[in-house]
Amino acid sequence: MRLRIVVAALVISTLPLCAQKAQKSASAGGAQESPTPSAPEPPGRVTEVATGLEHPWGIAFLPDGRMLVTERPGRLRIVGRDGRLSAPLTGVPKVYARGQGGLLDVALDPQFAQNRTIYLSYAEPGEDDSVAGTAVARAVLGASGLENVKVIYQQQPKVRRGGHYGSRIVFRRDGTMFITQGDRMDYREQAQELDSLLGKVVRINRDGSIPKDNPFVGRKGVRPEIWSYGHRNVQSAVLHPDTGQLWTVEHGARGGDELNQPEAGKNYGWPVITYGRDYSGMKIGEGTAKAGMEQPVYYWDPVIAPSGMVAYTGDKYPGWKGSIFIGSLTPGALVRLTLQNGRVTKEERYGGALNERIRDVEQGPDGLIYVITDSPRGRVLRLEPK
Length: 386
Ligand SMILES: [Ca+2]
Description:
There is one protein chain. This protein has 386 residues and is mainly β. The protein has one domain (44-384): Neuraminidase, CATH 2.120.10. The chain contains 2 helices and 25 strands. The chain has helices spanning 2-26, 112-115, and strands spanning 32-33, 45-53, 56-61, 67-71, 75-79, 103-108, 117-125, 131-141, 146-154, 159-160, 169-171, 177-180, 200-204, 226-229, 234-239, 246-250, 257-260, 298-300, 306-311, 324-328, 333-340, 343-350, 358-363, 369-373, 378-384. Strand 8 and strand 9 (146-154) form a beta hairpin. The structure holds calcium ion. Calcium ion binds next to loops.
């Protein structure tokens, strides 16, 4: 009698689990999941290069080894090789500096040595400051500030509140530019709508015009800037130095950060398919897979909260050439992925002295890895090999 009660209780208690599993397998995507490795001290020494930056967001090295660094409240500074911060450069466009908004990425033109041109991505306020959207401006880096500033991209529509502005700027080998964006948080359904620029990776020419070979050019009711869609919030992007293909990492909700290789015209699923759940624990969308929607190459659950990414091409650290590095905001670490034939073959994480909110990662002209930390007194750190 007692045994029967126990068995019955077991059957009842496992029923919802079985139902859940059956439902899961009906739409199982089968993408590769991070094993969530531990995060020991990095191999080498972490040195502070600069400090006192207010929520630094993006870094780009100038050819002489100095760095351009954005601060999210709306300042752009040069960090000298001695770590000294310049005064804020003049000419930076007005930014919507609230919540996740503000001045975001900075990138040098592929022909910077000839044209001294840089690009900034940022949250741009609307006319009355009640709405905002991601934007990109180009400018010439003058002696003490930006000159010939021109806004070359504006995400449409601008919306109220919300976060998820993305964004990173990456140049393709053909000279066109990718801008990664987010779904503006409260508007996630628009990631699937092709007349909206929310939740999209876009591709434009460096003067702001639209490349004629973009996947949706000429299609009625579709924004011609769109390269790929169904993205949640892409704050990590790199052009793979071997293949020339775009790699991105996007923030999921609870679980479901994704490594993607966005290809022209493809749908990356958000918010219809995802490996994550809402912060409340509720299911999002329809499952993890659906016909016509791409699987991520790799996903993280629990999340790493990815921001900033670099493909390492140097030879200063044994065994790291060809690895991809991603900054983790939460739990805070530098994540290293080894890739082979478009798959992740190994993930390592370095915490310890790098156990901070890492907002961007770059390779310096000296072949060393630099990161910036997201805090009111953010720092530039350099990882020196043993
Ligand atoms: Ca996806």
